[in-house]
Amino acid sequence: MSEGPEDRDDDWFESAFDDEDESDATDATDATDESGDEPDADSDAGSESPFAGDDGGSPFEDDSGSPFDDDGGSPFEDDDASPFEDDGEPDGNDGGSLFGDDFATAFESAGSPGGGGGGSGTEFEDEDFDSDIPRIDIGIEGLDRMIQGGIPRRHLIVSIGSAGTGKTTFGLQFLHHGLENGENCVFITLEQSHDDIMDTADDRDWGFDEYEANDQLAVVDLDPVEMANSLDNIRGELPGLIEDFDADRLVLDSVSLLEMMYDNPAKRRTEVFDFTRSLKAAGVTTMLTSEASEDNPYASRHGIIEYLTDAVFVLQYVRSETRETRLAVEIQKIRNANHSRETKPYEITMDGISVYQQANIF
C-alpha cells in the first residue's frame, strides 16, 4: 500500500465496492429494529422553517443575513457560488480516484432499461400546479396520495425522524419502487453494512440480490469518518459515476453522520451545502435520511439539511391522552408540488411502510 493519503483513499473506497461483489455468499443477518425517544410535539408545520420564533435562532442567521431567501427559492438555482464559500476550500477532487475500476466498470456497463415511475396521473385545477414537470412516486401508496401529482424528478428529498421511525425503510422502499419500474438505483449507507441492507430488503422479498446481480442496483457501505476525510474527491467524482450508471434514484443513509464529522458549524454548513449541490447537479432524484433534533421533532439534528432540500418528510412519534403511542408522517414542504399538510398515521410492517391517508392520528 502506498504511503500517500490519496492512495489510502483509493484503497478504502475501492475495497468498499470489492467487498460488495463478494457479499453473495454471506449469511443473512437479522435486521435490527430501531427504537427511539417519544417526543411530545404537535405543530402546524408548513413550507416555512420550524424554527420561526425560536429563541435559539436559525443556524443560518448571522450578522450578514441568511443565504436562504424567504421566497423559498432553492439555493441550487444559483450556480455562481456557494453562500458558504470558503476561499481556502479546494474545488472538485484533489487527485486519485476513490472509486475502484470494478465499480467504475459496473457503472459503465449498466444501462437504464428505459423510463421509470411517473406521477400518479391525477389532474388538478389549481393554477399553481405545473403538470409539465416530470414527476415520480415515492412508492408508499397512502403517502403518494398526499402528494398531488408526485415528487418532481431530480428533487432532493429528506426524511427526518428519531430512531425507530423507519427512515431506512423509507429509503429502501423508495428505491424498491424505482427498481420495479425499471430504474437504476444507488443506496449509500454510513450506518449499516452492505449485508445488513440486503438482508433487510430480502426479509421483505424485494429482490435486491437479483437487481444487484443485473447491475440495476448498487448498495455501498462507507465509513463516515473516511467519507468526511475524502469528501472533496467523493463530491468531485460521484456526479460523473452517477451519470455513467444512469442512476435515477439515490439514497444516502444518513446525512446526520456526515454532519457530525465537523465540529465547526461554518465548516459543517459549507461541506453539507457543497455535497448536496453536487447531488443536485448530478440530475438524480435523491433521498437523504436525517436524525431529528432532540428538542424539536420537526427539525433535523443540526438544522441544516431541511433548508437545502426540495422536499421534507417528518416521521415522528405521537402520544394520545390515553398514552397510546403511534407513528405519524407529515409533509413539511415540497417545492413545485401541491401536497396535503395533514399529519397521518403509518405503520412499519413486513411489506414496508403503510400510510393511512384516510385516517386520523387518534
TrEMBL record:
Residues 1-45, 60-92 have a biased composition (Acidic residues). The keyword ATP-binding applies. Residues 1-129 are annotated as: Disordered. Residues 112-121 have a biased composition (Gly residues). GO terms for molecular function: ATP binding. It comes from the Archaea. Residues 134-362 form the KaiC domain. SUPFAM superfamilies: P-loop containing nucleoside triphosphate hydrolases. Keywords: ATP-binding, Nucleotide-binding. Pfam families: ATPase. This is KaiC domain-containing protein. The lineage of its organism: Archaea, Methanobacteriati, Methanobacteriota, Stenosarchaea group, Halobacteria.
